[in-house]
Design goal:
Number of domains: 4
CATH superfamily of the largest domain: DhaL domain
Strand content: 15-25%
Shape: globular
Strand order of the largest sheet: 15-14-11-18-16-17
CATH class of the largest domain: Mainly Alpha
Largest sheet: 6 strands, mixed
Radius of gyration: 25 Å
Number of strands: 18
């Protein structure tokens, strides 16, 4: 039976179907990476973004498509990871705006909402690139809207949308040369196809693969860590999403800072508390979680809730990694710095250079917008400078900045670890002028070259090099410069290919897999080939990259 109107309940089911279909095909999307390196995993990033939205839909039974779309958008904005995840969240945020005030939507209404979604996604990207998820979303929307009349069913709308999406996806290599050279289609666009196809299956009454939607990982509990004879020492790590209720409080005007102060007065520690729309995210360590929950419930109702005995975190490495203790909010200050880093040595270096808070993340672990929001709250400054240090993390940082209202958050275009290192070496707040400080950080990053050495995860042809799986490769930005059978050879070939004219300093950041012999080779090579260049070595302990070279 044809469907002419889409209500909130059906839309929520369709979104879950889209998330499930994407999760089932996430590895397919991951494998479309242009570079043959362990990547931020587009499929996983987009899946986590969709599932972040789905988390806010749990337990909601409203038939209002406006309400459901709004909650979905809130969750996706918070959970967005990676460039494609952020763009996907912006698409659905625009759709929510297009559906504002609507109880249900016909094909024409949905088409206008999708147009708003495309417009918002394009506006979120500083320099939109065609041949990406943006193109696929725009061309599919234009085609579906152009073929919509007053009698168009929702099945017809989605059928037309998917037809053009697939065609647009096939054309992406013609718009983006690096896709053609690598022999792949755009991964973000492919992820969008799986989302919409999953939604369409639910609309038609078809089943999406059973178990496709990933359930949150359940850590193994060590039952010997807290026994009948144990004493509660560490308390409970309590996290929740609280939907403020107008029947209990003025949801729009209620301040997260008010709740944070009340939780502190109740003995709560390591408090992180921030507000997005009318939803408050709370993290607190407490000996009495029941008291905390009862207090929060006087203002609203819980969307998600987690209470963990921290004795397990202190005794089990796996659980500690999943539920890392968050430090308490720092003393208030005029300026603060949040930097993204992975690798204990790199994190320690960044902190020693002046970063206040480190957000754990990098190439294969892109932090979410929510992770940044927690960091902004923790740093507790009037002006916060953010160093994403990875091109696939910049958008999530910017999205978090747009959601955070307590401070002036400035996201710098630091796209590599080298950019972040160079900026921090010039960190100086003496001028007390945010604009001047930001300019000095940008100046410090200009001209810095960051070279990377890692192992190829697949056969590839890039930059005129025939790369075999497990070869060691060296590259700068998107330019592949070296291919060798050993890490040391790839490192020296990379340093040979880089223009070292007028360069004076080379920082070699050694990864976990870099051996002493590898570093000896690099050290000898630099001394003989570039005798005027001063070499500094940092034991970065990072995964993935055998070497990160910062050239100044």
């Amino acid at each position: 039976m044809p469907t002419y109107e889409l209500n909130g309940a059906l839309f929520a089911d369709m979104v879950r179907g889209g998330a499930g279909n994407l999760r089932a095909n996430a590895q397919v999307v991951n494998d479309l990476n242009v570079f043959p390196i362990p990547d931020g995993d587009t499929g996983d990033n987009m899946s986590l973004t969709m599932e972040g939205g789905g988390a806010l839909l749990q337990g909601l039974t409203s038939d209002s498509i406006s309400y459901i779309a709004s909650k979905l958008a809130d969750g996706m904005l918070l959970g967005a990871r990676g460039n494609s995840g952020v763009i996907l969240s912006q698409v659905f945020a625009g759709i929510a705006k297009g559906l504002e005030g609507a109880e249900c939507a016909d094909a024409a209404t949905l088409g206008r909402a999708f147009q708003m979604g495309v417009a918002q996604a394009y506006s979120a990207v500083m320099t939109p690139t065609e041949g990406t998820i943006l193109t696929v979303a725009r061309e599919a929307t234009d085609y579906a809207v152009a073929n919509t009349t007053s009698t168009t069913t929702l099945e017809d709308f989605f059928s037309n949308f998917i037809k053009e999406m697939r065609a647009s996806l096939k054309r992406t290599p013609d718009l983006l040369p690096i896709l053609k050279e690598s022999g792949v289609i755009d991964s973000g666009g492919a992820g969008l196809v799986y989302v919409i196809e999953g939604m369409y299956k639910i609309l038609r009454g078809e089943a999406v693969e059973v178990g496709a939607t990933a359930a949150p990982a359940t850590p193994t509990v060590d039952l010997t860590a807290f026994t009948a004879d144990s004493e509660m020492t560490f308390g409970y790590c309590t996290e929740l999403l609280l939907q403020l209720q107008n029947s209990k409080v003025d949801a729009k005007s209620f301040a997260a800072e008010t709740l944070a102060g009340e939780l502190a007065a109740m003995g709560g520690e390591s408090i992180v508390c921030f507000k997005t729309g009318t939803v408050i995210k709370v993290h607190v360590h407490t000996m009495f979680p029941g008291n905390i929950l009862s207090h929060c419930q006087q203002y609203g109702e819980f969307l998600t809730l987690k209470v963990e005995n921290m004795a397990l975190q202190h005794s089990d490495a796996k659980v500690e990694d999943r539920f890392t203790e968050k430090p308490a909010k720092q003393a208030h200050k005029p300026f603060g710095v949040v930097a993204v880093a992975a690798g204990e040595g790199i994190k320690e270096t960044f902190l020693s250079l002046g970063a206040d808070v480190i957000v754990e993340g990098g190439q294969t672990m892109n932090p979410s917008a929510e992770d940044f929001l927690a960091a902004f709250e923790e740093v507790n400054a009037d002006t916060v400078f953010v160093l994403p240090n990875n091109s696939n993390i910049v958008l999530a940082a910017r999205q978090a900045a747009s959601l955070y209202e307590t401070a002036d958050v400035r996201v710098l275009q630091s796209k590599t670890v080298g950019d972040g290192y160079a900026a921090l070496t010039m960190l100086d707040f003496e001028s007390n002028d945010p604009d001047a400080i930001e300019q000095s950080l940008n100046d410090a990053m200009s001209g810095v070259i960051t070279g990377l050495v890692t192992q190829s995860v697949r056969d590839s042809h890039l930059g005129g090099l025939e790369i075999a799986k497990n070869d060691y490769i060296g590259f700068v930005g998107k330019e592949m410069l070296a291919d060798a059978k050993t890490a040391a050879e790839a490192a020296t070939d990379l340093l040979t290919a880089v223009d070292m004219t007028d360069r004076e300093v080379l920082i070699a950041i050694c990864g976990k897999d870099a051996t002493a012999a590898d570093m000896d080779t690099v050290r000898t090579f630099v001394k003989q080939t570039y005798p005027r260049v001063e070499l500094f070595e940092i034991d970065g302990k990072q995964d993935i990259y055998n070497f990160i070279f910062v050239i100044e």
